[in-house]
Amino acid sequence: MNPSFFLNRRQMLLNMTALGVGGAVSAAFPGAGFGQAAPAKGGILSVATSGDPPNYDIFSNTTGRTLRVVGPCYNALVMVDPKDPSRIVGDLATSWEASQDGLAFTFKIVENAKFHDGKPLTSADVKATFETIRNPPEGTVSVRKDLFTVVDAIDTPDSYTVVFRLKRPSAAFLSALANPWCLIAPKHVLDAKGNTKSVVVGSGPFMLKSANSGVSVELVRNPNYHVPNRPYLDGITVYVVPDRGTVALYLKTGQLLIDIDIPPSIASELQKTAASTVNVLSAVNFNGDSFVMNSKKAPFNDIRVRKAIALSTDHADALKVVYNGAGSVTGFLAPGQWALPANVLAQQPGYGPNMEARLAEAKQLLKDAGLESGFKTVITGRKNAGTHEGRVVYLADQFRKIGIDAKIRLEETAKYLEIMNNREFEVATTIISATADDPDALFATFHTCNGAENYAGTCNPRVDELFAQQSRTLDIQKRRELVNEMEILALNEFGYINLYFKNKFVAVHKRLQGYVIHNEPDNNMRFQEVWLS
Questions:
Q1: Which region is the signal sequence (predicted)?
Q2: SS3 at position 161
């Protein structure tokens, strides 16, 4: 079967429900789409990043700094189509089929793929990768294990066949497999190291050549790539440029050809001053700017304190101040078919329109908790990473309105991730992020009791019950009702406070051809289909 087509009506339903791409995506700029002039071979793609990757691990990382480097170096089993963000297509998989009961997915994989060290890629590597994701060995952190709790077993009947056996039907299984971090690592590396922190041994179109800390990472074309005539580029250089103004200047001059994540202020400036050389693409994104309170540390172990802070949080003002208004205020799910209706959201604590009444209630809650005079805390955020610094400053100012004195603590990415993974914070800026608009992807890891990124540490067993129930419900309307009930309960735990969901902006120099923006640009990091004019 051609992997870009689905096999039967049931699988079509599963795939379409799983992908669930919602929201508008801007059209590719003229001359940049597929079907234009024949692709040219050669050249180096220069990509911007705000800092060094903390390491190369595909299991524990969530930062785009790592994915900028490793995304082009690996393959996945399936992926979101780089030409069309509404479809899931094969990457290593040449075909797949779902059983009639929805409890087994059988994949055939290519037979000529090799890792960069020359060893062949087989079904054993696929199994080893997903076993590491869903059941990591001691010492390995897997932040995406919650995506695969539905998997009961993985079989490899031959070297090029993989069978995923599920505990129950899953409406989101294929979209989980298409997560851009679900990259296939060599079994021999995982057996030796348990993770990929220190090595990049993929099967992808590019190979790691060198890394110069604080300066750049250099990737070169894989001469033995299993896809004929790909990639077109000779290589990719990822440049570390922390200052956003400098990035804009380099885009204008062509020293940088793409920046995957530009803030709206820079996007607006480029549209005004560099329209002849740079195109700015935008899409509704599945990335929410959030902060989290550690329910295991006093006084945040008192739900009244967490609720007080939730009531005092002005989401619309935060969106305006921190992100130039370029986004949407929703709850824990992105704008689209799964988000709470606006009238229902407005009834939740912290979302009502009467800010004066909310602040009064927040102060009363603190008084009831024995904190009428307020208290001191620390807000932790990441340095030079998106809106983290802006959010930390904004939140510290907002906390003062109800008598909370917040000290700001900013850490480099590696240290920040260590703090978050070890739950060594009181309040911290974080994100809610997924690669598909689906409750399984956007909810489980952050809000279920044992979620890998449930940094708040809150636990409502009914939330977990509803999550499991909605995940196996294929009827869209019934699933939406369950999702709404689940989200309302989770919102009222007041562990995560999602300020807003962002629009995504990507700046592309007009020399770069064949690039299409996705709702989540991380879905399109292979770069095997792009070329330079």
A1: 1-27
A2: strand
DSSP per residue, 178-226: T-TT-BPPPHHHHHHHSS-SS-----SSEEEEEEETTTEEEEEE-TT-S
In a shared domain, residues 152 and 34: yes
One domain for residues 446 and 525: no
Q: Is 304 helix (H, G, I), strand (E, B) or coil?
A: helix
DSSP structure class, residue 438 = -
DSSP symbol at 100: T
In degrees, to the nearest 5, what angle opens at C-alpha 147 toward C-alphas 142 and 153?
90
Domain CATH for 84: 3.90.76.10
Task: State the pLDDT at residue 90.
Answer: 97
- Same-domain pairing of 442 and 515: no
> How much is the pLDDT for 14?
37
Asked whether 431 and 522 are in contact (CB, 8 A), the reply is no
Q: What's the burial of 464, exposed, middle or buried (CB within 10 Å: 0-12/13-18/19+)?
A: middle
Domain of residue 79, residue span? 9-205+510-532
What would the 3-class secondary structure string for 371-390 be? Answer: CCCCEEEEEEEECCCCCHHH
Non-local (6+) Cβ contacts of 55 within 8 A are 61, 66, 197, 198, 414
What is the Cα–Cα distance from 313 to 513, expressed in whole angstroms? 43
Give 10-residue mean pLDDT values along the chain (533 residues). Answer: 33 36 37 58 96 94 93 97 91 96 96 98 98 94 91 98 94 91 98 96 98 96 97 98 92 95 90 94 92 98 98 96 94 93 96 96 97 97 92 96 97 93 96 86 92 95 95 89 98 97 95 93 95 95
Residue type, 391: R
Spatial separation of the C-alpha atoms in residues 31 and 356, rounded to whole Å: 52
Rounded Cα gap, residues 229 and 226, in angstroms: 9
Q: How many CA atoms lie within 13 A of 27 on its CB side?
A: 3
Question: Pairing relation of β-strands 216-221 and 375-382?
Answer: unpaired
Q: Rounded CA gap, 48 and 242, in Å?
A: 9
Query: Phi/psi of residue 266, each to 5°?
Result: -70, -40
Closest by CA position to 518, among listed 182, 84, 87: 84
Q: Which two tokens stand for residue 450?
A: 């044992």
Which residue, 385, 392, 420, is CA-closest to 406?
392
Q: What pLDDT, on a 0 to 100 scale, did the predictor assign at position 171?
A: 79
SS3 217: strand
Distance CA 403, CA 418 (A): 30
Rg (CA), the chain: 23
- Residue 466's H or E segment, with its range, is helix 461-471
pTM of the model: 0.75
User: Would you state the pLDDT for residue 502?
Assistant: 93
Task: Please provide the size of the chain in residues.
Answer: 533
- Check whether residue 60 and residue 163 sit in a common domain: yes
47 belongs to a structural domain: yes
Query: Which helix (H) or strand (E) segment is 96 a member of?
Result: strand 93-98
pLDDT of amino acid 210: 97
